[in-house]
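Narrative of activities, Objective 1.

The group set out to show that a structural description can be obtained from nothing but a protein's sequence at a throughput compatible with the screening campaign. Below is one input-output pair from the validation batch, recorded exactly as produced.
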Amino acid sequence: MLLRSKTKELLQTRELTKKQIDNTILNKQEMDNKTTILKSYPQRLVLELTNACNLKCIMCGRDEAEFNPTVFKLDYLKKMEHLLYTIEEVTLFGWGEPTMHPNFIDILKYLNDFPVRKYFVTNGMRLDKIKNALFDYRVDIMAISLDGAKAETNDRIRYGGNFDIIIKNIRDIVKEKKERNLNYPYMNFVMALMDSNIEELPKLIELAFDIGLEEVKGVYLTVFTDSLLNETLYNKQDKVIKIFDEALELANKLNIKLKLPFIQGYDIAEDKYHKDCFVAWRDFFLASDGYVRPCQSTALKFLNFENYDNFEDMWNSKEFQEFRKNVNDSNKMCDECKRCFQSSHANWNNELSFIQINQQFAPEWEK
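Output recorded for this entry:
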């Protein structure tokens, strides 16, 4: 089954409460109406737990900046506790590896007292340390970044990672999931597609099937440095189409969900800067340095979380209002949005979605 990265819809893995359903319905209505002052809460909180990482991937923009590691304060989450009865999901995702947060398991435990989905993205190297917590505190969705179907490829790209350890960790989790007769966590592989690894996409689908994962997702590499220009898939449509067709045929055969970006030249955004963006309605992104941003894929700062006493004042601040008003207006959107590389909203017809050399693409963290 071929999927596209969705914007309005979030993956449903558990039954929602009436309060959550009502909020999501209102939130979608306000999206469609392009409302700037919202009565609804977001559908999810996206929390960057840290900008630190235990790997040094060759393509990661965070390695092009000098900064001091930051760690998400638990007080931030408690300040938004009243939202956790109304929103659908808390996603632990950002520029760093979330499981490196010293209180990662405590955060899962805290969230388990509320009816929210728990979702995080990981490089998989620390899964052995948190395996029991995945089940004890019901992690609903877990995405594992893997950039090759064999150790040689993945470990070259994701420097410091160990393919064999990651696969063993995932197999152990799948085994435990079966032994406990549970349907969570829903797990998928996420692969950064580049010239030197895209041919392994079908093999990654076979690996997912062999292990017992439900889905494989591919996202195009965005190049931040001259040294990786040879890895971009920009203007390599023939190669991409061939491999995507092979991958889809295999995924259908093995009953693996396959999520892929549009082929360059066929993106539904046509000649726009980006697809219609809904992040400032659907999501509230709070970075580990305490700054609220529209999404993870921008350096644009809205406000400092610590300067506000309540969530509502932030959610309908002038910064959010202006962003909602302008984000889909080609004449008024900010320059960063014009070169969007966020996997769900980027226009993959545009060169700037693939190549961000000499652009401001990452937050300016404190040094």
